[in-house]
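Section 5: illustrative case.
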């Protein structure tokens, strides 16, 4: 009999989380450990075929955004909404990375300093975009936070997709301004972006500290750290522009709803040695595939580093893609560019998505293969009702 593939859920179930773990982190881990198990509730179906009458338990998902098993349908719906906002223009990709000297401070102030990362990066891009020397207009920006490296180390960085053009207010109407070819790989000079981003982020840290909103370790001299970082070269990396909207959609599909590590990268859990082995890419050696073995508790510690604060938004939009009046602005741009109107969004039921993506009919009996399942009972997490027999 083939052993089941290891999952993050199996690792967390075998791990011993420290008693001092934050309550929100414990709650997330508990949800991930119960995902698609009887403890999380179920829908119970029986085949209506009298000669079969087989039972099928459909255990509930946890729907937590950190779970490697959940979120596929939500991701698809989100991508389809973004598809209706993309234009037939060039899109650029830029990554803002925070230096490792700040990691300890960020880990103690995630909500404030990860939020500051969004603010400093978006303000930097909008500052350059509004300058007539570069674009003189407001672009559309989608920013996605990643906090991990391939080895589950803490590595906070922000992926930004920036439109190759923007809107400009002309008297009482909005006008579309197309970006022109320049001498830089990106829309704006990256070295200048680097310096402005560094200044905005460090100024933001000083402002938060002055407001008493930062928990600073007693052995950390905040001002000397800031002075040192002002002299450090920060990493702002501009990648080659996307080929078009379809490439953007492909990228969004792969990266926006990623979690710290997916189940397919796990190779083996050794319960005797209490270790877990997983694959990773070594970018220092051109992305060579390697394996790493860690104690299960260390793996769990690294994984929980990437659990975001409650209600923290990890995908944010700016410029003409900002949430308020976004659809109105998109329609105005489409009219100004003389493009055909985007079709109205259609809500696709999860049953149709299940059949389209996986070829699974939700009411198909696992024994007789007929579409004859009928719901006969249901239970939810926290209920102590025994399953029917």
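Designed sequence:
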């Amino acid at each position: 009999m083939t052993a089941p593939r290891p999952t993050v859920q199996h690792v967390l179930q075998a791990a011993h989380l420290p008693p001092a773990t934050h309550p929100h982190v414990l709650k997330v881990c508990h949800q991930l450990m119960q995902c698609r198990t009887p403890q999380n509730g179920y829908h119970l179906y029986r085949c209506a075929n009298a000669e079969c009458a087989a039972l099928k338990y459909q255990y509930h998902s946890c729907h937590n955004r950190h779970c490697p098993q959940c979120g596929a349908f939500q991701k698809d719906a989100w991508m389809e909404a973004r598809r209706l906002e993309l234009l037939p223009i060039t899109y650029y990709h830029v990554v803002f990375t925070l230096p490792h000297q700040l990691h300890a401070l960020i880990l103690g102030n995630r909500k404030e300093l990860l939020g500051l990362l969004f603010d400093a990066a978006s303000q930097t891009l909008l500052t350059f975009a509004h300058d007539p020397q570069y674009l003189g207009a407001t672009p559309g920006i989608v920013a996605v936070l990643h906090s991990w490296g391939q080895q589950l180390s803490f590595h906070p960085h922000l992926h930004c997709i920036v439109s190759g053009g923007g809107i400009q207010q002309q008297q009482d109407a909005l006008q579309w301004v197309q970006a022109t070819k320049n001498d830089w790989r990106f829309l704006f000079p990256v070295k200048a972006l680097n310096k402005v981003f560094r200044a905005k982020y460090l100024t933001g840290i000083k402002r938060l500290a002055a407001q008493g909103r930062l928990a600073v370790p007693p052995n950390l001299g905040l001002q000397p750290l800031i002075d040192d970082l002002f002299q450090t070269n920060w990493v702002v990396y501009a990648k080659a522009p996307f080929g078009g909207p379809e490439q953007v959609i492909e990228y969004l599909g792969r990266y926006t709803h990623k979690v710290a590590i997916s189940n397919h990268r796990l190779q083996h859990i050794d319960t005797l040695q209490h270790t877990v082995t997983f694959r990773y890419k070594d970018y220092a050696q051109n992305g060579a595939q390697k394996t790493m073995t860690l104690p299960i508790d260390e793996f769990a510690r690294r994984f929980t580093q990437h659990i975001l604060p409650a209600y923290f938004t990890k995908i944010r939009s700016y410029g003409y893609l900002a949430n308020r009046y976004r659809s109105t602005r998109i329609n105005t741009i489409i009219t100004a560019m003389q493009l055909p109107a985007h079709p109205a969004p259609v809500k696709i039921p999860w049953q149709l998505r299940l059949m389209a993506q996986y070829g699974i009919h939700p009411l198909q009996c696992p024994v007789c293969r007929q579409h004859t399942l009928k719901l006969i009972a249901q239970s939810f997490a926290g209920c102590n009702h025994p399953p029917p027999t």
